[in-house]
From TrEMBL:
Its EC number is 5.3.1.23. Pathway: Amino-acid biosynthesis; L-methionine biosynthesis via salvage pathway; L-methionine from S-methyl-5-thio-alpha-D-ribose 1-phosphate: step 1/6. Signal peptide: none annotated. It catalyses: 5-(methylsulfanyl)-alpha-D-ribose 1-phosphate = 5-(methylsulfanyl)-D-ribulose 1-phosphate. The record marks C159 as: Transition state stabilizer. It holds the Pfam family IF-2B. Catalyzes the interconversion of methylthioribose-1-phosphate (MTR-1-P) into methylthioribulose-1-phosphate (MTRu-1-P). Substrate binds at R55, G56, A57, R89, Q198, N249, K250. Keywords: Amino-acid biosynthesis, Isomerase, Methionine biosynthesis. InterPro entries: IF-2B-related (IPR000649), IF-M1Pi (IPR005251), IF_2B-like_C (IPR042529), Initiation_fac_2B_a/b/d (IPR011559), M1Pi_N (IPR027363), NagB/RpiA_transferase-like (IPR037171). This is Methylthioribose-1-phosphate isomerase. Belongs to the EIF-2B alpha/beta/delta subunits family. MtnA subfamily.
Length: 382
């Protein structure tokens, strides 16, 4: 089995006196080439976040956390760095949380120990993410076994949620990996994920790497696939889950949820509890990132997508010059369309405010809660 890709790593200075480096696998260059991007300052990291060289909710959390550690180690103004990093992209709550956690650790330490404390906290988050990802795969597979007892799953996924977004195997893709490992992945349907093609460029890349049976489709081909009865379950990630269970994820997720409901297919959202934001009441309160229209009006070949090459005019125009484009990066799926949310603590189903709050408070009992049914005292029962 192929090794997991390392999406992000911390490199200590080669010589005393040099600063450490945050090394990112530049996701804008995949699948054409595996190129590393070296970040030595906060503006460089902010640019990498905004151009999607580093992306996906859990990895954004790690990038934010290590960004604070980098700022601290290199003697930059850490509070200023935190402001720039946390606001680099607005929708994935993990980014601001990764920044906040590390910043708090930095300030809590005594002077002289602060840079080390920030780095230790970033490393803790990294390890937690890897561990959480394993648990997510386990719970997700358990849920599939329960919902689809015949095995041989045909799963549809959107965007990219694998090792490229995580310290481990990812979120929704960790469930796909778990199904593949036990020989029950009959087909992975990969939505290409317009306009930046995270499905085609990244998920297909990961699926091929791990020898999965996968097929790529244009996003608008999903309807005919459901109609043909070819999808057993949809598995997607999340960028922010509001207190009522509304899910913000890559644009194109909501239409899949509507299709899934129409065709009676389970729609599973897979995310660490760090993506659940009880401070955001509902889907309407989630800020949705709007991206440049040029991502829609122009085609840019993946191998030319490198950081800096995403300026308007860098690609080939596919619409009349001056065309306005609607380009939200995410959409919101209402909780009533979500069959279950799979986290590293267990499965929440049905999705609702009370169940999510109990889960966030750690009151889901492991092993026995695949259906997430709540007992009188708010704990999950099997
Ligand atoms: C675990 S990844 C979950 C989400 O972050 C993922 O589905 C997604 O929408 C990523 O969007 P991106 O714009 O590529 O950062």
């Amino acid at each position: 089995m192929a090794e997991d890709m390392v999406a992000l790593r911390w490199e200590e200075p080669p010589e005393p006196g040099d600063g450490p480096v945050l090394v990112l696998l530049d996701q804008t260059r995949l699948p054409a080439e595996e190129v590393e991007l070296l970040c030595t300052d906060v503006p460089g990291l902010v640019q990498a976040i905004q151009t999607l060289a580093v992306r996906g909710a859990p990895l954004l959390g790690l990038a934010g956390a290590y960004g604070i550690a980098l700022a601290a180690a290199r003697g930059f103004d850490v509070d200023e760095a935190a402001g720039h990093l946390a606001s680099a992209r607005p929708t994935a709550v993990n980014l601001e949380r990764g920044v906040r956690r590390t910043l708090d650790a930095f300030h809590a330490a005594v002077p002289g120990q602060r840079a080390a404390a920030a780095l230790a906290e970033a490393r803790r988050l990294h390890a937690e993410d890897a561990h959480g990802s394993r648990e997510i795969g386990r719970y997700g597979l358990g849920l599939l076994e329960e919902l689809l007892p015949g095995g041989g799953y045909r799963l549809l996924t959107h965007c990219n949620t694998g090792a490229l977004v995580s310290g481990g195997e990812g979120t929704a893709f960790a469930v796909v990996r778990a199904a593949h490992r036990v020989g029950e992945l009959r087909r992975l349907w990969v939505d290409e994920t317009r306009p930046l093609l995270q499905g085609a460029r990244l998920t297909a890349y990961e699926a091929a790497r791990y020898g999965m049976p996968y097929t790529l489709l244009a996003d608008n081909a999903a309807g005919s696939l459901f109609a043909a009865g070819e999808v057993d379950a949809v598995v997607v990630g999340a960028d922010r889950i509001a207190a009522d269970g509304a899910v913000a994820n890559k644009v194109g997720t909501y239409p899949l949820a509507v299709l899934a409901r129409h065709h009676g297919v389970p729609f599973l959202v897979v995310a660490p509890t760090s993506t659940v934001d009880l401070g955001t009441a509902d889907g309407g309160s989630i800020e949705i990132e709007q991206r440049p229209g040029s991502e829609v009006t122009e085609f840019t070949a993946p191998y030319a997508l490198g950081v800096g090459a995403q300026q308007p005019g860098a690609g080939v125009l596919v619409a009349p010059l001056g065309t306005q484009a609607y380009n939200p990066a995410f959409d919101v799926t209402p909780p009533e369309l979500v069959t279950a949310i799979v986290t590293e603590r267990g499965v929440v189903s049905p999705v609702g405010e009370e169940a999510l709050a109990a889960m966030a408070a750690g009151r889901i009992r492991r092993e026995r809660d695949h259906l997430g049914r709540l007992s009188e005292d708010g704990t999950a029962m099997g």
